[in-house]
Amino acid sequence: MEDKSIIADKLDDLEELLLPRRRTLLTWWLKIFSYLFLFTGIAALAMYPMMFLLENDYHVSLYGLESSDKRSFIMLAVVVLFLLKGVVAYGLLLEKEWAIEVGLVDAAIGILVCLFVGLYTMFGTGSYIASFRVELVLLIIYLIKLLKMQAIWKKSPAGYK
């Protein structure tokens, strides 16, 4: 009976050795966007307080949300979205266990914001035509990719601890 237990343990060890490292699961475009959003997340973290200290206003935009007033809710929302994207990029690039779950939340929030902006343009401004956001298509592709990677990501070993 113990022989079966030893064999099962050896098979588990072999399965773990055959799983790819988490970083290899990231496609080239996912790596590029991760580095880009890691940089923008760090920039947002630095620039938002600097706007108040230096009395400067910067124009920021993400998913159709645009603002150049540092005291507006939209500016704060865009900065928080960039910070969220930076956290996801950090998690993906450093192969963190939680990266996929936070990435799924990021993708869902992005899709909801894009839909809201499109519908607001249609109903809020009275244009009768919803604005189409290319980001919406990219976010759906991103969401699908993360969903496909989720199971393997949890089983795969991380290169960084």
TrEMBL record:
- Give the transmembrane ranges: 28-53, 73-92, 104-123, 129-147
Keywords assigned by UniProt, alphabetized? Membrane, Transmembrane, Transmembrane helix
According to UniProt, the name of this protein is Uncharacterized protein
Q: Which organism is it from?
A: Chitinophaga ginsengisoli
